[in-house]
Specification:
6-stranded antiparallel sheet, Calcium-transporting ATPase, cytoplasmic domain N, 4-stranded antiparallel sheet
């Protein structure tokens, strides 16, 4: 057709009439196979297919790189023959099969499709059953996501090239830039074997972690400590008698009053006899020393036991060795040292027994455990209390480090003194003198006495601390969380009256009780009693929320309910009568209308006041995690004379709600158990634990200082003057005087 003819054809009004263009074309088959909805779904999601080549025949053609929506066969059409090849769309889980058309050969790429290399797809998928869901087309977003992922993987592979190592100086702090280019080895997962088969995979050795070790039953632990304590207590009285007799003999010998009647050899024989008897009585000291030595621990028991053994050998050398001088051995001092060591161990076992015995009660106790803001008491499991109680003190590690050095120094100093004075025959005397000065009487009293005294007092008050570990944990926190019931226990808060302005009184009481129960404050018991007396019942509260200004809000039965102080009501736009002035009143409003006013009265308890003063006096910071909007810093200051701005902590509302959760997640094991209600047992436990921990630290430091000073002083006196200055009486006086601060500190533990 020439150009002029084409222009004339276009100018005709019916040039593009579809009916005229399709005259003589049989469309019966096409109408059966093509549906308008499928065409819209096909081209509405994928756009136009202008880039696809035209098929040379009427057969259906599917491009491998672009998937078409399959044309579903109608139920009245016959099923396709088996020899007809399926046509599979790419990048999807479905399959498309051509109807009544054999598979054509792959067409050659045209100019429009040249250079287009689609992603290889599956070439065959099993034929879908009749009536099953057909696979849907792949959206354009998924195709783009696959392309982007492929590009990102390629870019990442390019970056897996080792960067050059930057040279740096010897003392440069710049980090070396490097990147590992080798793939990380991931071991293959081992298939679990059946119960009949034997596993050949070596399991990793478990770490010796205390938290993973099983703990003993509280009853068994208490019985064990009680049995051991009874044995030591039976030995303690004769040991005390021997120690008193040794002290008297030492004083008599030093005064010289018995010289006309008793010779030096007779005094040595009496001292050696007393020491032998005392060593038999204090046999548990030797047993513990050997047991700790097997564990490669040098303990005070080992130092004292060695001092007694060397003194006994030196006392026996008075008759066995001719070259030994007539100076008195230190047997009487060793007798006293053994008694103090036995007494310290006895008090330690008594304290552990009392702590474990409290855990055997059937009553469910409060557990003092660590939380985010400090320590708080809550009702939870007591698992781990016995394990915490049996843990050794952290300060015992000081002994394990320094006592081997002190013991080695005593041997070296004794050898130096003996060689310097050319008196090797008296080596045992020099060594026993230096060992006696190093064996401080305050060693075992540093641990046993504070624990024994505190455990005995707390047991009378219905409490127990979990040994040295619990006291140490409570001391490190330095704060204790107090809730509504701690400050105002049941019986100190009561209803002083109410006034209803709108609605029914029973309904108003039910609404107020519902809001108080949802808040979890200490007013639950007060409003619960009021609700029962009025015959009201509570309702479920929805959309409940707290307000920093002093109130709560929620929805009850589709009505907006507000409960709070008077200032909170004013901020929420609720009008209040002018004659109402209640600083601790509870106001109830429904739909911004005042419904009722409840007058609440708070009374300060003497026990709570005394407990707060004890807590503040010992440097512990109370954290007031209260939910009652009436318990403000002003109320606390007015009732308990406590300034919350200086020595206390009144956190924000969000922190108060988190700290006062009834089931707060705790970290660590229980530090103490409380079997009594109120703030006083709680305060006694925390304050006592802190005092005990401080006493143990001070006693250990003082005992080590005394041991070091005594070792150096004894070496100097023996090296310089020999037998003229060193004698049993001055050494005993030195050890007793050095133990006086320890006695004072131990007595201070329970004075609060």
């Amino acid at each position: 057709m020439e150009k002029n003819d084409l222009d004339k054809f276009i100018e005709r009004s019916d040039a593009f009439d579809t009916r005229k263009l399709l005259e003589g074309v049989d469309l019966s088959n096409v109408a059966e196979e093509i549906d308008l909805e499928e065409i819209l779904a096909e081209y509405g999601k994928r756009g136009h297919l202008k880039d696809l080549p035209e098929a040379e025949s009427d057969e259906v053609w599917v491009n491998e790189g672009y998937r078409l929506k399959p044309v579903h066969a109608r139920e009245e059409k016959a099923a396709p023959k088996e020899e007809q090849a399926p046509f599979v769309a790419a990048a999807a889980e479905g399959q498309a099969k051509a109807v009544n058309a054999p598979a054509p050969p792959e067409p050659e790429a045209s100019e429009q499709t040249a250079g287009w290399d689609p992603e290889p797809q599956a070439l065959y998928e099993p034929e879908a059953k009749a009536g099953s869901e057909r696979a849907q087309g792949v959206p354009l977003e998924d195709v783009m996501a696959q392309v982007v992922d492929a590009v990102m993987e390629e870019e990442e592979s390019r970056r897996q090239v080792a960067q050059p190592v930057v040279r740096r100086g010897l003392f440069s702090r710049k980090l070396r830039r490097f990147e590992d280019t080798e793939p990380v080895y991931v071991p293959a997962e081992t298939e679990p074997l059946s119960d009949e088969g034997e596993s050949y995979v070596e399991e990793p050795e478990e770490e010796d972690d205390f938290d993973d070790l099983p703990e003993r039953d509280s009853g068994a632990a208490s019985a064990d400590y009680h049995r051991r304590y009874k044995k030591l207590r039976r030995r303690g009285r004769p040991a005390l008698l021997a120690a008193l007799l040794s002290g008297i003999l030492t004083a008599v010998q030093y005064s010289g009053a018995a010289e006309p009647y008793v010779s030096a050899e007779q005094f040595a024989a009496v001292g050696l006899t007393l020491l032998a008897v005392q060593m038999v009585i204090c046999l548990p000291v030797y047993v513990r020393a050997v047991a700790e030595l097997v564990r490669r621990h040098c303990t005070p028991e080992l130092l004292v036991a060695l001092f007694a053994a060397v003194s006994a050998a030196d006392g026996a050398s008075v008759w066995l060795m001719d070259g030994r001088g007539m100076q008195q051995p230190f047997c009487l001092v060793a007798v006293v040292a053994l008694y103090f060591t036995l007494r310290g161990e006895m008090l330690r076992l008594r304290g552990l027994r009392d702590c474990c015995h409290m855990a055997t009660y059937d009553q469910s106790p409060y557990v003092v455990s660590s939380v985010k803001g400090g320590y708080r008491k809550q009702e939870c499991s007591t698992d781990g209390f016995v394990g915490m109680t049996e843990r050794e003190s952290e300060q015992l590690g000081w002994y394990h480090v320094l006592l081997p050095v002190i013991l080695t120094a005593t041997v070296v100093f004794a050898l130096l003194t003996a060689f310097n004075r050319f008196d090797t025959a008296n080596f045992l005397w020099y060594w026993s003198a230096i060992l006696g000065a190093a064996s401080s009487f305050a060693f075992t009293a540093a641990f046993g006495t504070p624990l024994g005294k505190l455990a005995r007092r707390l047991q009378r008050d219905g409490c127990a601390v979990s040994g040295y570990s619990g006291a140490q944990a409570m001391s490190r926190k330095g704060s204790m969380i107090l809730t509504d019931n701690d400050l105002f226990p049941p019986g100190t808060v009561f209803m002083n009256g109410m006034k209803v302005y709108a609605h029914d009184a029973i309904q108003a009481v039910g609404y107020a009780a519902s809001m108080v129960n949802a808040s979890g404050s200490g007013l639950r018991q007060v409003f619960g009693d009021l609700c029962r007396s009025q015959g009201a019942h509570t309702y479920p509260v929805e959309d409940f929320s707290f307000y920093q200004e002093g109130g709560v809000a929620g929805t009850i039965r589709g009505e907006s309910v507000i409960l709070g102080r008077s200032d909170f009501m004013a901020q929420m736009g609720v009008r209040l009568p002018r004659e109402i002035k209640l600083p601790t009143g509870v106001f109830l409003a429904v739909d911004r209308e005042l419904v009722a006013v409840f007058a609440i009265k708070y009374m300060a308890s003497d026990n709570v006041d005394a407990a707060l003063q004890a807590v503040l006096h010992n440097g512990i910071c109370p954290v007031f995690a209260v939910r009652d909007f009436n318990i403000t810093p002003a109320l606390i200051k007015r009732k308990f004379k406590v300034n919350t701005k200086k020595r206390c902590l009144y956190p924000e509302l969000s922190d108060r709600l988190a700290f006062s959760e009834e089931e707060h997640e705790s970290s660590g094991r229980p530090a103490a158990l409380l079997f009594r209600e109120g703030l006083m047992p709680y305060a006694e436990t925390v304050v006592g634990g802190k005092r005990m921990y401080g006493a143990v630290r001070k006693n250990c430091a003082w005992a080590l200082i005394g041991s070091i000073c005594g070792t150096i002083l004894a070496f100097y006196l023996a090296f310089a003057s020999g037998f003229q200055v060193l004698s049993p009486a001055p050494l005993l006086a030195f050890q007793l005087l050095w133990s006086v601060p320890t006695v004072l500190v131990n007595g201070w533990v329970t004075q609060y």
